[in-house]
Amino acid sequence: MKWMAAAALMLAPVMALAQSGSCPELKNPELKWSQRQGANYTICYLELPSSLGSGSGFGVYLGSRTFKPDKKARAEKGSVGSQQVQWFKKQTVNNARPYSREALVNLPGAKPKSKVRIYTWIDAATAEQLDEAFGLARQVAVQ
Question: 7-45: buried (b, 16+ CB within 10 Å) or exposed (e) per residue?
């Protein structure tokens, strides 16, 4: 399964999150990440509250791996936290989740020295799940 990368608001907090192995904070304290930690990355995943157990949700990857969404699959513009992003249609096995999306979050400033990449993705089977996941993406907050 492809893991896709994440979200943040400023370079220093994002680097701290990736190095500490912590997921970004969420504005809604009732929401909780599922976290997976690797040697040089952190993956955070949040299932859609309306579809628990369905495999639909919003994910964030913080690490050094590079992701390149297919530019031909450009979809809508949106935001992750306060950062503007361009969402792209994401391929899923057997098109099981046709409303899935992926985006790269650009860190503020010119050419940040950090090698931390932020990749975000949405797994959604319906337009309603996609809208709910867009709402979760806007909930990402970094102190």
Answer: bbbbeebbbebbeeebbbbbeeeeeebeeeeeeebbbbb
Q: What tokens appear for 82 in the block?
A: 């306060």
Q: What is the pTM of this model?
A: 0.78
Shortest CA distance to 2 belongs to which of 73, 78, 58, 67? 67
Q: Compute the C-alpha angle 75/42/5, nearest 5°.
A: 10
3-class SS string, the chain: CCCCCCCCCCHHHHHHHHHHCCCCEECCCCCCCEEEECCCEEEEEEECHHHCCCCCEEEEEEECCCCCCCHHHEEEEEEECCEEEEEEECCCHHHCCCCCEEEECCCCCCCCCCCCEEEEEEECCCHHHHHHHHHHHHCEECC
Does the pLDDT value for residue 47 go beyond 50?
Answer: yes
Quick one: average pLDDT of 72-79? 92
